[in-house]
């Protein structure tokens, strides 16, 4: 059975262009490898953005920890204190995301 656009060949298959079919097959295979590789790159980039979001959350948390905090006394007076951030634990948390070592 042959496609409509192909010329009719003899029954002995001597005139079928197998070499051209093999060339087209190799080109399509190479193209599909590139498409699969590109798909993998795009998926890994999305995962990297998510990973970067986790690191940014940790940095934001460190920034909030190092700010001045207002604490109200029993007399409703505002006392400003400075809380020292826990650098060691935050550094360990960030190293698990590929941040500071």
From TrEMBL:
Signal peptide: none annotated. The lineage of its organism: Eukaryota, Viridiplantae, Streptophyta, Embryophyta, Tracheophyta. GO terms for biological process: malate transport; monoatomic ion transmembrane transport. It is a multi-pass membrane protein. InterPro entries: ALMT. The keyword Transport applies. Keywords: Ion channel, Ion transport, Membrane, Transmembrane, Transmembrane helix, Transport. This is Uncharacterized protein. GO terms for cellular component: membrane. The keyword Glycosyltransferase does not apply. It is found in: Membrane. Belongs to the aromatic acid exporter (TC 2.A.85) family. Its main location: membrane.
């Amino acid at each position: 059975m042959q496609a409509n656009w192909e010329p009719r060949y003899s029954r002995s298959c001597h005139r079928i262009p197998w070499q051209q079919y093999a060339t087209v097959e190799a080109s399509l295979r190479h193209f599909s490898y590139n498409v699969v590789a590109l798909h993998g790159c795009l998926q890994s980039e999305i995962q990297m953005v998510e990973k970067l979001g986790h690191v940014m959350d940790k940095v934001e948390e460190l920034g909030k920890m190092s700010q001045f905090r207002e604490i109200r006394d029993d007399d409703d007076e505002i006392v400003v204190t400075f809380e020292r951030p826990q650098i060691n634990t935050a550094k360990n948390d960030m190293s698990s995301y590929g941040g500071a070592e």
